[in-house]
Design a protein that fits this description.
It contains seven helices and nine strands, in the order βαβαββααβββαβαβα. It is α/β, with parallel strands linked by helices and about 220 residues long. It has a single domain, classed as Rossmann fold, CATH 3.40.50. Helix 1 crosses helix 2. The chain starts with a strand and ends with a helix.
């Protein structure tokens, strides 16, 4: 993994990463007229999104995607898109057609097939925001799960070790093709998987090439 950027606390981390995202958006829009950005779920990104929504981003030229989704009914509070709408999307001036949710309520196979078409139309993503699970997973690509090894742009995930068992995720190849990959980590629970990655263990998160690693001091301490 690349040398991480360490921040004193979650607030400093969230602010810095939100500013980084806004900067990448400005660069992409200036260069290509659009910023293709895949959001992450989880608690830590929520704080980042709450900062990001207050920054000067030309949202009319942003296309939002999701790195993964749980196969739950549309609108379920446990879905990643529900969190993103609450923390970010409802607060910004982005056209509804620029937000591309994963139709995970259709089941993993059908949702993956439909989202494949969306990602194919997008082409190369500009930024994929990622987290790190305690087992070393990222998005919904779990250690030992067959979905992690598939080369499809979007993969159906079955038998997830975390509920729900069915999920949909961007494939590793799609993540690695993105112009920028950014890990956002906070808290002591990240220390063990980070240590395993530093020791060379081939966890899914370690397979993301050329990523930026941003974390608070609690996550990095003693690594």
């Amino acid at each position: 993994m690349n040398e991480p950027v360490i921040y004193e606390d979650l607030a400093a981390l969230s602010t810095a990463v939100a500013l980084r995202i806004a900067g990448l958006a400005k660069q992409a829009i200036s260069a290509r007229g659009v910023f293709h950005f895949a959001l992450a779920g989880g608690g830590t990104p929520r704080y980042c999104y709450e900062v990001l929504r207050r920054l000067p981003v030309d949202w009319s030229h942003v296309q939002l995607y999701f790195g993964d989704e749980r196969c739950l009914p549309a609108g379920d509070a446990e879905r990643n898109d529900s969190m993103a709408y609450d923390a970010l999307i409802r607060h910004i001036a982005i056209p509804a057609e620029n937000v591309h949710v994963i139709p995970a309520q259709l089941g993993a196979l059908q949702a993956a097939a439909e989202y494949h078409a969306v990602i194919a139309q997008a082409g190369q993503l500009d930024l994929v925001l990622l987290g790190l699970g305690e087992d070393g997973h990222t998005a919904s690509l779990f250690p030992g799960n067959p979905a992690t090894q598939r080369c499809a742009p979007v993969v159906a995930v079955f038998n997830s070790p975390k509920p729900p068992s069915e999920r949909v995720s961007l494939g590793m190849d799609t993540i690695n093709r993105a112009r920028h990959k950014l890990f956002l980590l906070a808290g002591k629970s990240k220390r063990e998987p980070l240590a395993r990655i530093k020791q060379g263990e081939v966890l899914p998160a370690a397979c993301v090439s050329g990523a930026e690693w941003h974390m608070d001091r609690a996550a990095w301490l003693e690594n």
